[in-house]
Every structure is written in structure tokens, then in C-alpha cells.
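Trying the structure run again after the queue cleared.
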Amino acid sequence: MRKRYRVMLLFGIVLLGCIHLFVPFANAEFTLKEYRSMKHTDMFKEYITGLGVGFYWANMHLDQSGKPPLYCQPVKLSLSGENYLNILDRYIEQNKDSKDKLKPGTFIELLLLQGLIDTFPCAK
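Done. C-alpha cells:
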């Protein structure tokens, strides 16, 4: 019985090692080119929501530290995943003729942040 347990354990370890070698790595960023094909997936909507919430908390940290915020979202306004997607789509649409801002390899994360800055500018 003990030998069988060791064989099964060794087999499990080898199997996990093989799976680890052949599974592609998860991508932490998305390009504009990828966005166009993925923007309607639930996974991407959740990703954008998490990204937007992360920007929100970064803003809160800057405010607590006495530093200027990235953007100035109204205090009583809560944004959803759909809001973040709309902000991103609007920014892309408004800048579609700018080859400098919207190259196929431009990261969506940067575009969302710029969209938030344009949507909620801070008073100077």
C-alpha cells in the first residue's frame, strides 16, 4: 500500500509539472488590438472593472498622502464596469485619428487611465 501511495504521489507531481510547462502564461496587460476582440467577454469586463477600482484606490491613496490625484471623480459617483468600458470606448473614439496615442500595441490600461483623466479633469 505504501509503495502504491508513493507511485501515485510521484505521478501527480510529474503531471502537475507537465501541465505547468504546457499551459500558456496569463497576460497581465491587454493591447488595443486585443481589446477590440475581447471587449465583449465577461472576463475582460471583470478585468476592466478591477483596473478601474485599482485606479480609484490609487487616487484615494494620493489624496490621503496630500498629493494631487490622477483624476477628480465626483465623490458621490460610483462607477461600474460598464462605465469604465464606456469611458475607454469614448477615449478611443475621440482619439482614433491620433496615430501617436492609438497604436495597435498601446496598452488598454494606459488608455483607460487617460480616459478617466479626460472624463474627470481636476480643477487647476
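Residues 32-119 form one domain. Worth checking whether this holds up in the mutant runs.
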